[in-house]
Each structure stands twice: as structure tokens, then as C-alpha cells.
Design a protein that fits this description.
Chain lengths: ~425, ~240
């Protein structure tokens, strides 16, 4: 019977091509506007590491005090001193520190010019903590951290550029006049937003191409290529050593904690550490620490750009207006068929039959609107860059999930919008209709 | 087959109550051909729509084929309409967007009948009214008489126990009206129960029994002076 309703719906839509086109366009445009903005929103609001985002934490420590901190919040990074203290305490099953580096890579082929490669100085736990996929080799181990060995993990793109994509483990890369042995090559990996470095990036950037041991980088004098915040009361120092020992923050810390007990234990450790620093006279205020997991960290850092939320809200509002318009058109279309409804009721159609027939027809409008919406969404992807930052706009894409979602939203919304017109249609009194005929 | 006792139908507004039927009593036996007559506004069509379960009533009792229908919900009323009642309307009431075949199929669809049986019944019904060759035509391509025959085929296809006809020849010329009336008589001879509302005393005379309605009540024709006056006018004409 449902197939019959679909046939009736299709025939009915064909009979009024102009009205049908208006409804389909209304739904299609509304769906497309919503889906284009949603495509951006889902990228910027998605969990970049869902399998363990609740086990990865950013420890924060207030080294500025209530006078200089921002709304009572500790800085978003650590000083070198505190970073090293947390690493040496080893209170988490895994922990890493990182800061951004930018090194000049010298190509091995003669005649090629050096180029800049961006990445991170970090610790060995970085790779297993963030589940970095390797194409060849692996990251260095804890001994490599301690030995301050000149090793490097390179990205797939850099490996392609330097070695033509071959297994380059054990080969040498020269960066800033320093030869590094390649320990591993990572596969395509660029979590969006880049949760592990919200301090120095806005969360959206090209994949990092180099990873070098933190201790080696500091010892080699490789300075941060990212942010360095000394705050209003921070002591910068006049030379590198005093900068390292000073109160400027530039190191992003991460710890992996497997359960609530470990989280509580680590928070206590942080508070204890801050208390000891107060007792030692470095901090003149009560311990002020934070321990945020990935989702909390992204929320706190405002990883979702405000323009994305606004655009989505505007698009949904526009879609609702389109649906209201569709309700009006469906109402006109359905009530014009009151005589037919009267006849059908007289011949044995219950109100349920009328509901099913007209909702099926509305569903077909929704399906056609959804199909148009998918087409317009595809076109709209080219125009995203006009509204959003290019590095965010390029992440949005039309995939099967979005196609399915567009169709589902269009059908569901249209059927929902059709409830009132259908209800009105089902209330048609057959006796009155037949008498008036 | 159809029994109404002390039935009333009241249309209420904030300021006035209008009785369309008042203390209405009728009993139509199975196999009867009853003509219902009466002046305009007397309640004939209201009686027919209530008899056909297209409208509810305000008071009294109505038994259709032994079932008291006043407490039935919409689904049950629709099911009875679909399975036991056939309608023939003055305005034919075919669905203009469906061809003849599909129009006749409408009530059978709601019965959940299988396609092969539907086809058999539709073609039998169309053969019976002499329109099998017009199965693919649309109502607009048929004459008024042909459209009414399609409507009769639609009513017959479901093999209803009761056929309700509201001025079935009202929109037809004399020749077409005669053809439709002969068809109804033939259907009656085959055992159908028919209740026909008509203004036309000539048609009414062809039924087995006449019921006259005045001011929403069935009246005894022998005691109703207005009936005699009306008949006299017809005779004079």
C-alpha cells in the first residue's frame, strides 16, 4: 500500500510542476545552506582523537598569580622549568612536552634550495600517546630522549620530497646545518583541530613534517617557532639561559591518565607541586592548577570559530523559513484536493490512510529537495572560502555521510512540516465535501 | 439491513440549534429498493450521509447490518463504509486525475485486496456497466452518463450489502437517466439493497417503497396534505 501512496504522490507532484518546483527549491536551498555550514562546523567541533580524548590531559599551572593571570585562569603553556619538573616527576603513565620548531631543510639533491619544515620538539611518549601512525620505522624511545640524540621523525610529504617516498629510516636529513638520522616516517596525520598544540596554532594548519627530541632541541639551542608568552609580570631575562629559567611560558604539556584515580592523583600532585613552589617563595599565591581533557581543552581554547556557530545558526534559521514556506505550499496543495479526500473517505479511507498518503507525498518532495540540496551543497563547497578562513574552509568536504544526512534531513523536515497540512487534510468532512459537490 | 430509531441530528452554533433530523425512524430490509423523497432542506441528504457513516448523529440508534454504529471509531466506520456500503452521488465524484480503472480500484485498495482479485473485480464491474473498453480513459473524456456508470461500477466492485444513491440521475439528461435507472433496477433484481434519495417522483415510483421526509422526520404520506398538494402539481404539469 505504501508503494501505492508513493505512486499517487509522484503523480500528484507531476500534475503541479510549478508548485512542486517551488517546494523542492525551497527545501533544496534550505538544506544546502544548512549542510554547507554544517560541513564546516562538524570539522571544527569534532573530537580529533575520540578513542582516547577522555584520557589525555593538559596540566596547567598558574605561575603569574591573580594580578597577572587572565580571569583567574593559569597560562595555556608551561615554563621550561615547570615542564622539566613535571617530566622528571613521571607521575603519569605517559607524558610529553612539546614546542613548535621550524628548521631549514637542506635537500640532498644538488642544486635544490633549502626550504623550511615545521614541526615539534617533543618527547618519545608523544607518538604512542597520540597514536601517530607510522609508514616506516617508529619514534625514538626514552633512551633517545635522555641521550639527546640527533634523530628525526619526518612526515610523509617531507619523505616524498626528500626521498621520493622510499623507506628512509636510517638515512640522514640535514636541518639548520645539523645532520639527523631518520628514525621513522609518519603516515598522513593531521588531527583537526590540532588539539595538542592550541597554544601556538589556531588548531588548523598543514601536517607537521618534523619531530625532534625535546632535550636535544633545547641543548642545540633550537628556539620555539611558536608562541612565547611572558605575560605582563613575566621575567624575560637578557640571555637564553635566563629565558629558559625565567617565567615565560612556551612549552605545551600533555599527560595520559587511564582512570579517575590517576586523574585525581595527578591533580593532587600538581597542587602539591604548586604548594611547594609557594613555600619556596617562587609563587606568592595559593595553588591554582587545572587538568583538562581534550574536549574540555578545546572548549576552553575556543576551537570552534565563532563565525562557524553564527553561520550554522543563520543557515538553520533560513532552513526553518524555507520549511514554513513549504508548509504554506503544502497546505494550499492538500486543501485544494479536499474533494478527492472526501471521495476517498467515503470509499473507505480512514484518517490514517489519508495521513499516510499525504505524508508519503511530502516525503517525495523532501527526497527531491534533498537531492537538489546535495547538488547545491556540492556547489556551495566552492564558496565556503568566502565565509571562513581558507585553512578551515579547505577541510569541509561533501562525503557520503553528508549526502545521506542531507537526504535524511530533507525528508524528515519535510514530513514534519507536512504534519499540519496533512492533519488539516485528514479533517476534511466527507459529508460536507460530497454535499457541496 | 438499515434501522434508525428516534435518531436525531442537530447542528449547533453559539446562538441556534438546527434539527436536520428529529425523531427519525426508518427500517430498510435486506433486498429492498427504497426511494427517499422530500422537499429541499428536508433532511434527505443528511439521512443518506448518516446512513453511509459519513457523518455522526446526535441522538437515537442506528443499526447497520445488525451493528450499532454510534460507538464505532473512525477506523471501524471506514472499514464498514469500505466493505458494506456502495455510494452513488449526483455529481459522480470520480477522481479526475485517475483513469476509469484506477477510480474503480480506489475502494478495493483500502480493502487490502490482492492485485489479481482487484483486476478481476474491476473488469467485471466495468463489463457490467458496459465500459470495459474505456478502462484507460479519464473522467473528463467521458459523457455524464458514462461517468455515472463508472461511479456505479466503483460502488459495485466491492460487492456492497447496501447501495446508497443520492440523486443518481440529477445531473443527467432523460435518456442517460433512464439508462442509469435501468442499471439500478437490474442491480436490485440481483439482490442488492438500495436506498435512493431523489426529487423525481417518476423515479421514486420505480422503487419498491417510498419514504417521504419533511422537516427531518419520516411522514406517513397518506396523512400529509403537502404531499397531496405536491402530487397534484406534478399531475397538473
Amino acid at each position: 500500500m505504501f508503494l501505492h501512496y508513493l505512486q499517487l504522490g509522484l503523480a500528484s507532484l507531476r500534475r503541479n510542476p510549478l508548485l512542486t518546483a517551488l517546494m523542492v527549491m525551497s527545501i533544496g536551498v534550505g538544506v544546502a545552506a544548512s549542510m554547507v555550514t554544517y560541513a564546516v562546523f562538524r570539522v571544527v567541533s569534532s573530537d580529533p582523537i575520540p578513542q582516547k580524548s577522555s584520557r589525555l590531559f593538559v596540566p596547567q599551572l598558574d605561575n603569574r598569580g591573580p594580578r597577572y593571570n587572565r580571569n583567574g585562569e593559569p597560562p595555556d603553556a608551561l615554563t621550561y622549568t615547570d615542564a622539566m619538573a613535571l617530566m622528571q616527576a613521571r607521575r603519569a603513565p605517559r607524558q610529553t612536552m612539546l614546542y613548535q620548531v621550524g628548521l631549514s631543510v637542506m635537500p640532498q639533491q644538488p642544486g635544490r634550495l633549502p626550504f623550511k619544515a615545521l614541526g615539534y620538539a617533543t618527547f618519545a611518549d608523544f607518538f604512542p600517546m597520540f597514536e601517530v601512525p607510522f609508514l616506516y620505522g617508529r619514534g625514538w624511545n626514552a633512551d633517545g630522549d635522555d641521550a639527546r640524540a640527533p634523530v628525526v621523525v619526518i612526515g610523509r610529504q617531507l619523505n616524498q620530497r626528500l626521498f621520493g617516498g622510499a623507506d628512509s629510516v636510517g638515512r640522514t636529513v640535514v636541518m639548520d646545518d645539523q645532520a639527523y638520522r631518520v628514525a621513522g616516517v609518519i603516515d598522513d596525520w593531521n588531527p583537526q583541530p590540532r588539539f595538542f598544540d592550541m597554544f601556538s596554532s589556531n588548531g588548523y594548519a598543514d601536517p607537521p613534517q618534523i619531530f625532534v627530541p625535546f632535550n636535544f632541541a633545547v641543548a642545540a639551542g633550537i628556539e620555539t617557532y611558536g608562541n612565547n608568552s611572558c605575560g605582563s609580570g613575566g621575567k624575560r631575562g637578557s640571555d637564553r639561559e635566563s629565558w629558559l629559567r625565567g617565567e615565560c611560558v612556551w612549552v605545551s604539556p600533555w599527560v595520559e591518565l587511564d582512570d579517575a584515580a590517576q586523574v585525581q592523583g595527578y591533580r593532587s600532585f600538581l597542587e602539591g607541586y604548586a604548594r611547594r613552589l609557594r613555600e619556596a617563595g617562587r609563587f606568592g599565591w595559593a595553588p591554582n592548577v587545572r587538568l583538562r581533557d581534550v574536549r574540555q581543552w578545546l572548549d576552553y581554547r575556543g576551537a570552534v570559530p565563532p563565525e562557524s556557530r553564527i553561520a550554522l545558526a543563520v543557515a538553520i534559521g533560513f532552513f526553518i523559513i524555507c520549511l514554513v514556506n513549504t508548509i504554506g505550499l503544502l497546505l494550499a496543495k492538500f486543501l485544494r484536493r479536499a474533494p478527492e479526500i472526501g471521495v476517498r473517505r467515503a470509499l473507505g479511507a480512514s484518517r490514517r490512510h489519508i495521513y499516510l498518503q499525504f505524508l508519503a507525498e511530502a516525503g517525495m518532495v523532501g527526497l527531491a529537495g534533498g537531492a537538489l540540496g546535495v547538488l547545491l551543497t556540492g556547489v556551495g563547497m566552492f564558496g565556503i572560502g568566502l565565509v571562513f578562513q581558507p585553512q578551515i574552509a579547505c577541510l569541509a568536504h561533501l562525503d557520503l555521510r553528508l549526502v545521506a544526512l542531507s537526504l535524511a534531513v530533507a525528508i524528515a523536515a519535510t514530513v514534519l512540516a507536512a504534519f499540519y497540512p496533512t492533519w488539516r487534510a485528514a479533517q476534511v468532512q466527507p459529508a460536507w465535501q460530497l454535499k457541496s459537490n | 439491513m438499515l434501522k434508525m430509531t428516534h435518531l436525531s441530528k442537530v447542528y449547533r452554533t453559539e446562538v441556534v440549534e438546527t434539527y436536520a433530523l428529529r425523531d427519525f425512524n426508518i427500517n430498510v430490509k435486506e433486498g429492498e429498493f427504497v426511494a427517499v423523497t422530500g422537499p429541499s432542506g428536508s433532511g434527505k441528504t443528511t439521512f443518506l450521509t448518516i446512513a453511509g457513516l459519513l457523518e455522526t448523529f446526535t441522538g437515537g440508534h442506528y443499526h447497520l447490518d445488525g451493528i450499532e454504529v454510534s460507538q464505532l471509531n473512525d477506523n471501524a466506520r471506514s472499514k464498514i463504509r469500505n466493505e458494506k456500503i456502495g455510494f452513488i452521488f449526483q455529481a459522480f465524484n470520480l477522481i479526475p486525475d485517475l483513469n476509469v480503472y484506477d477510480n474503480v480500484e480506489v475502494p478495493l485498495r483500502y480493502r487490502g485486496m490482492k492485485a489479481a482479485e482487484r483486476k478481476q473485480r474491476i473488469m467485471d464491474a466495468l463489463e457490467r456497466v458496459g465500459l470495459a473498453s474505456r478502462a484507460k480513459h479519464y473522467p473528463a473524456e467521458l459523457s455524464g452518463g458514462q461517468q455515472q456508470r463508472v461511479a456505479i461500477a466503483r460502488a459495485l466492485a466491492g460487492s456492497p450489502r447496501l447501495l446508497l444513491a443520492d440523486e443518481p440521475t440529477g445531473n443527467l439528461d432523460t435518456q442517460m437517466a433512464r439508462g442509469v435507472m435501468e442499471l439500478l433496477e437490474e442491480i436490485h433484481r440481483e439482490g442488492a439493497t438500495i436506498v435512493m434519495v431523489t426529487h423525481d417522483p417518476e423515479l421514486a415510483a420505480r422503487a419498491q417503497r417510498n419514504v417521504h421526509i419533511i422537516d427531518g422526520q419520516v411522514v406517513d404520506l397518506a396523512e400529509e396534505p403537502r404531499f397531496h398538494a405536491h402530487n397534484a402539481r406534478v399531475a397538473d404539469a
